[in-house]
Design a protein that fits this description.
By secondary structure, this protein is of the alpha+beta class. It has two domains: about 5-295, Nucleic acid-binding proteins (OB fold (Dihydrolipoamide Acetyltransferase, E2P), Beta Barrel); about 340-415, no CATH class. The protein is about 35% helix and about 30% strand. It contains twelve helices and 14 strands. It has helices spanning about 5-10, 25-30, 90, 235-255, 255-275, 295-330, 335-350, 355-370, 375-380, 385-395, 405-415, 430-435; strands at about 10-20, 20-25, 45, 50, 60-65, 75-80, 100-110, 125-140, 145-155, 160-165, 170-185, 190-200, 215-230, 275-290. The strands form two sheets. Strands 1, 4, 5, 6, 7, 8, 9, 10, 11, 12, 13 and 14 form a twelve-stranded mixed sheet that branches. The N and C termini lie far apart (about 115 Å). Residues about 1-10, about 335-425 and about 430-435 have low confidence and may be disordered. This is Single-stranded DNA-binding protein.
Length: about 425
């Protein structure tokens, strides 16, 4: 096998689609005569756009309309850098021209500035697949519209069983790591660049078991498709909350029903774009197993459950030291100071606390009250309070609410229980009834 055939099998993409336009700024459109005229109120559009990256490097981008394996068309961006063969066609070609592009898939890290709420933030970090074009040409009559892919790599993750969003088809989804080695002429340097490619295959496909075990080495042939994925995370929640907070002001600024409807559509579109995005994956139609063993659907689900349990155990193991440190430190209980304050103040004043006096009075009552005999005997054994104690009790009971603690303390300390010298006379039943 030649080196070109080996590279084609490793990571190669051939794309055939119609050239489409994309929006540009009005300042850029003023210097470009090939810009497509736009209607009043809309931004100008062009077939080729030039962008400057974070390190001041220039990159050209073009978009093509391509059918998916299941028939739904999508838009894909061609990233061109340097001298790409046939890139001059993009300058002269009109929208709708059928082009053929060849290149490879790249796994890149991107930053979305829409999630930056102030100047100190850069945005939300994410990873996605880009199509890096290496050559462009006009499509011939033998070229079939679509995006064909040839990959060779290793199954990286366990399989998920999902339902296709556009067709009533159950698919098995996994990730395949493709490692591309790059060399240069007249140099012994060898650089390896990994690319994590999302791969899906219909569950009833005969080659599906070859993708259902992590570690299998496979050769894949299929087609690209774009699909919607929901976005979650702290950055997404913050951006959506900021958009929702600004919506009442936009509603109030609308001066007419038509302006309000336009604002509502714009608000719904911005909110939807913050909560979802499009991603690229390969729909495999052929999978050859070069190393490893196939797995059934039940075995793939068991492997995924075991992987999820292992991740949960690992997460708990990482969090356990933090919980131990937090338990040893112990949170400060604010009620401790509230409870201890009266006792500390009473200790400084040299007087016992009200709770201590109340407990002592209750204990004295239990001690002086016999626990035997009928009710008449217990009433006879209970000594009558003195006149001074009774007067003091009624006086303290009339105290205001903010002095309840002082009143209770005064009442408890003022009541004196006289010593019993002789057994008092037992009153008869008439006297008891009269007292009651």
């Amino acid at each position: 096998m030649t080196s070109q055939a080996t590279e084609r099998t490793l990571n190669h993409v051939r794309l055939v689609g119609t050239l489409d336009t994309q929006t540009i700024s009005r300042r850029e459109a003023a210097n470009r005569p090939e810009v497509v005229a736009s209607s009043p109120g809309e931004r100008p559009r062009a077939t080729l756009v030039q962008r400057v990256n974070d390190v001041q490097g220039t990159e050209q981008r073009a978009v093509l309309q391509v059918p998916s394996p299941f028939g739904k068309p999508f838009q894909i961006t061609l990233h061109l850098e340097g001298n790409v063969a046939g890139s001059e066609l993009l300058t002269d070609a009109a929208p709708g021209t059928l082009l053929a592009a060849e290149g490879e898939l790249e796994w890149v890290q991107t930053t979305d500035p829409r999630y930056a709420l102030d100047l100190t933030e850069r945005g939300r970090r994410a990873s996605e697949l880009h199509f890096r074009a290496r050559s462009l040409a006009l499509a011939t009559a033998d070229d079939e519209p679509g995006c064909d892919v040839w990959l060779t790599g290793t199954v990286l993750t366990t399989t998920r069983i999902l339902r296709h969003p556009d067709r009533p088809v159950r698919i098995a989804v996994t990730t395949v790591r493709v490692v591309v080695e790059r060399t240069r002429r007249h140099s012994r340097a060898r650089l390896s660049e990994p690319a994590n490619v999302a791969v899906a295959i219909p569950l009833d496909h005969p080659d599906a078991p070859n993708l259902m075990r992590a570690g299998n080495e496979v050769c894949i042939e299929g087609m690209l498709e774009r699909y919607l994925v929901p976005l979650r995370g702290v950055e997404v929640d913050r951006a959506v909350a900021a958009l929702d907070a600004s919506w009442p002001d936009e509603q109030a600024a609308a001066r007419s029903p038509q302006a309000l409807r336009d604002a509502e559509r714009r608000y719904a579109r911005q909110r939807r774009r913050l909560q979802e995005t499009t991603r690229t994956r390969v729909i495999a139609g052929y999978v050859a197993l070069t190393a490893g063993s196939p797995a059934s659907v039940a075995e793939a689900q068991a492997l995924r459950s075991a992987q999820q349990r292992a991740r949960q155990d690992d997460r708990r193991a990482r969090q356990r030291p933090r919980r131990i440190v937090a338990a040893q430190a112990g949170p400060e209980d604010p009620t401790d100071d509230v409870i201890a304050a009266p006792t500390d103040q009473a200790a400084q004043d040299g007087t016992p606390a009200a709770s201590t006096l109340a407990d002592q009075a209750a204990q004295d009552t239990l001690t002086t009250t016999p626990s035997h005999g009928p009710a008449e005997a217990r009433l006879a054994d209970t000594p009558a309070p003195t006149e001074e104690a009774t007067q003091a009790t009624f006086t303290d009971a009339d105290a205001p609410n903010e002095e309840v603690t002082g009143a209770v303390t005064s009442a408890v300390t003022s009541v004196s229980i006289p010593a019993r010298t002789s057994k008092p006379r037992t009153p008869d039943r008439q006297e008891l009834t009269k007292d009651v």
